[in-house]
Amino acid sequence: PASGAFVLAILAGYGSEAVAAYGVVTRVEAFAFLLVLALAIGMAPIVGQNWGAEQYSRVHRTIRLAINFNLLWSGLAAIVLAVFAKAIGRAFSADPQVIYYAALFLWIVPFSYGVGNLVFGWSSAFNAMGKPQKAFTMIFVKSLLMTVPAVYIGAQLAGVIGVAVALAAANIASGALFHFLSVRGCQREQEAEQQKSAVVASAQIISGDGECAESP
């Protein structure tokens, strides 16, 4: 919400048409990518249950399938939105400038969501693993530390089209960065959990041996 409000504030400097177009785009994108966001939320119980049961191969398989589906669906959705960009704009407004800005965003930004949505997928996965701090960090960094500066710089350099390019760049950069870090982080978390389990198992064995020795 904070980054979205900042984008609207920046676009307000380029007229009400730019603000209206962005409103159209956000509503259309929310509908187009609703299935991907639902998938990120829906996979959380599967990840959490199997993580708790130490079925790590199932966790990795679930995340991998979710990522593949996200990339496929996001790519197809981006193509459809780009092809029908002007028609979508005309469905919401008769103003040529609103239609132009809406099409501009739909030609650029949706192609970044395949990578950008990885942040939400990994965030959901880490929440399910009991690591909400990692999830919060990813969302915070993407929204405020990457998107906001990128949009400001893009607007200064190229106006509305700069904002669109900046949003796409922030999505791609944050998605790629956190995917790389999350794969490694997930592996480290798995190793840490396995070490804990090994320690607990050893303690139980030692405790059991002690009880047997004391028994008559």
Write the layout of secondary structure elements.
Elements: H1 2-12, H2 16-32, H3 34-52, H4 56-83, H5 85-92, H6 96-108, H7 113-116, H8 118-128, H9 132-214
Largest sheet, strands/sense/barrel: none
The rough form would be described as: elongated
User: Mean pLDDT, as a whole number?
Assistant: 89
- Beta-strand percent range: under 5%
Q: N-to-C SSE series?
A: HHHHHHHHH
In DSSP terms (H or I, runs of 4 or more residues), the helix count works out at: 9
Provide the helix percentage: over 70%
Describe the protein's architecture and organization.
Helix 4 packs antiparallel against helix 6 and helix 4 runs antiparallel to helix 8. The protein has 9 helices and no strands. 90% of the residues lie in helices and 0% in strands. The chain is mainly alpha-helical and 216 residues long.
